[in-house]
Amino acid sequence: MGIINEDSFIETVHMKGLQISLIASGDGTEVIYHKLEPDARWGLEPLEGGETLEYLHLLSGKLLLKDSNGEKTFRAGDSFQRCPVTEHHIFQSIGQSEFLYVTSNPVFHYYSRVTNELRDLVISIEEKDGYTSDHCDRITKMSMLMADALDLNSRQILKLNLAAFLHDIGKVKVPVEILQKPGKLTSDEWELMKQHSTFGREILQETGLPSLIEAGEVVEQHHERYDGTGYPKGLKGDEIAIEAAIISVVDSFDAMTTDRVYQKGRSVLEAIDELRKNRGTMYNPDIVDTFFKIKDKLVKM
Question: Does residue 183 register a pLDDT over 90?
Fold first, then answer.
């Protein structure tokens, strides 16, 4: 384990797979302790106009770094430094890991407040929409497996990771009687339901955080269809971000195989057959093909 005494924490934020604790803050610099559960991801992104120092020191475990230089494994005692950050760097925890993060861009309190608010919204939406509380966690894990299989770059991985977990956050603005209606929605109800993807983009844009603003663009597109018949903008083919195309496939698979308030889930084989039938119409064919290649991993989520 690490060398940090928890009595020294000023404030702690807990999320699925991640604990973040502020240890010290002053003169525009923050020292933040991070604990990542196995396979959890954490990223650094460039800040517009920022000449900030970003320093990471690994206390225990291993971290796999993915960026434009490829992949590199960090072990306890290793450090990583950038001043400024000029690209997206994604760290994946191999087993449980702990590290200190030092930044001259103090963001902890704002970040923790926004993160807690979004997390609470996601949980409330999952309950309103008839899902179990780990629906968004499953979507995120499946999306990350797809990202690895498709060899996405670090910026795409960060965007996908956030958008996958927050894809349905806009449903907070949709009445529960519509979300849980057992029968067919009226035309007016369906028009309101379709707005949830745009609501999601707007909610994330209002945070002012660059990574969430980018994720919001993906969130807005996750119900677009490859043939152009989706919503809200009727995008088609390569007009749809690859991150949104991934979420569309894995979210559909999870929705089809999950028991909800108003319907019983289908079998895995039935869901896979449905994806196959809609390959090239509803879903990007390359994404569906990749899903099938790694389906044995995905169905275990």
Answer: no
Q: Where in the chain is the domain with CATH 2.60.120.10?
A: 6-106
CATH 1.10.3210.10 residue ranges for the chain: 111-298
For the whole prediction, is pTM greater than 0.70?
yes
What span, in angstroms and rounded, lies between the C-alpha atoms of 274 and 291?
13
User: Of 120-124, 188-192, 204-208, where does mean pLDDT reach its minimum?
Assistant: 120-124
Q: What is the CATH number of domain 111-298?
A: 1.10.3210.10
With 0-12 / 13-18 / 19 or more C-beta atoms within 10 angstroms meaning exposed / middle / buried, residue 96 is middle
- pLDDT of amino acid 49: 62
Rounded Cα distance, 21 and 12, in Å: 4
Q: What is the largest CA-CA distance in the chain?
A: 60
Helix (H) or strand (E) holding 42: strand 41-44
Backbone angles phi, psi at 146, to 5 degrees: -65, -40
> What's the CATH class of domain 6-106?
mainly beta
Please, what is the end-to-end C-alpha distance for the chain in angstroms?
A: 28
